[in-house]
């Protein structure tokens, strides 16, 4: 089995996922978009927004139904993804989840902004839960802090880290955007945590 780290950049309704080898130097094995909502239920991509203009009771019922849809869809999608990687001979040793925000939605007074925060938390939690069911350890990093945390964990300078993230994109076809770089960094940090835990033991 070939050890690898899994990285996620969480968006609303989906995540960019990158699988990175534990080789030296590490290499991108796979990059793909994974739906965390149900494409057949468009409102499940933004479940809390769907309830904003509804009466309180109807809003609660609608949001609960859509959240359930998200939980089922994401659990299935991530379980299938991990099984696909494992069947391909990869032993996933950890996962890094990169998010836009970790603010507590209850601290936000504006309904629309709070809905964004609720969805950000929901899609982060469903990934964490799905990984836990697959017996994978994960860590969460806010994107604005990820480069700084990454350079410390990897023991390299910020310019070199940015250069390496850009260079790693040459292994895949198509665009290599901020989402892919963030997910790759999440995977690299997961590999760093795994490596340090091996040294300690």
Short account of what is shown:
It contains five helices and five strands. With 201 residues, it is of the alpha/beta class.
Structural write-up:
- By secondary structure, the chain is an alpha/beta fold.
- Helix content is 50%, strand content 20%.
- It has helices at 56-87, 111-133, 143-154, 158-168, 178-200; strands at 2-10, 14-21, 28-35, 90-99, 138-142.
- It has a five-stranded mixed beta sheet with strand order 3-2-1-4-5.
- Helix 2 (111-133) links the parallel strand 4 (90-99) and strand 5.
- The longest helix is centred in the middle third of the chain and has 32 residues, at 56-87.
- It is globular, with a radius of gyration of 17 Å.
- The chain starts with a strand and ends with a helix.
Q: Layout of SSEs?
A:
Layout: E1 2-10, E2 14-21, E3 28-35, H1 56-87, E4 90-99, H2 111-133, E5 138-142, H3 143-154, H4 158-168, H5 178-200
Parallel strand pairs: 1-4, 4-5
Antiparallel strand pairs: 1-2, 2-3
């Amino acid at each position: 089995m070939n050890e690898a780290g899994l990285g996620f950049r969480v968006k609303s309704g989906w995540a960019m996922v990158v699988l990175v080898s534990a080789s030296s130097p590490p290499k991108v094995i796979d990059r793909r978009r994974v739906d965390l909502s149900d494409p057949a239920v468009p409102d499940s991509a933004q479940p809390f927004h769907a309830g904003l203009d509804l009466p309180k009771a109807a809003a609660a019922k609608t949001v609960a139904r859509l959240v359930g849809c998200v939980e089922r869809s994401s659990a299935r999608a991530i379980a299938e993804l991990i099984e696909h990687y494992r069947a391909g001979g990869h032993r996933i040793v950890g996962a890094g989840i990169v998010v836009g925000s970790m603010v507590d939605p209850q601290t936000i007074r504006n309904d629309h902004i709070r809905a964004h925060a609720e969805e950000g938390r929901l899609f982060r939690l469903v990934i964490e839960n799905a990984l836990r069911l697959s017996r994978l350890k994960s860590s969460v990093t806010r994107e604005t802090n990820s480069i700084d945390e990454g350079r410390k964990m990897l023991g390299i300078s910020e310019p070199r880290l940015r250069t390496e993230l850009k260079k790693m994109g040459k292994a895949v076809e198509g665009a290599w955007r901020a989402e892919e770089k963030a997910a790759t960094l999440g995977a690299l940090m997961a590999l760093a945590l795994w490596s340090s835990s091996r040294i300690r033991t």
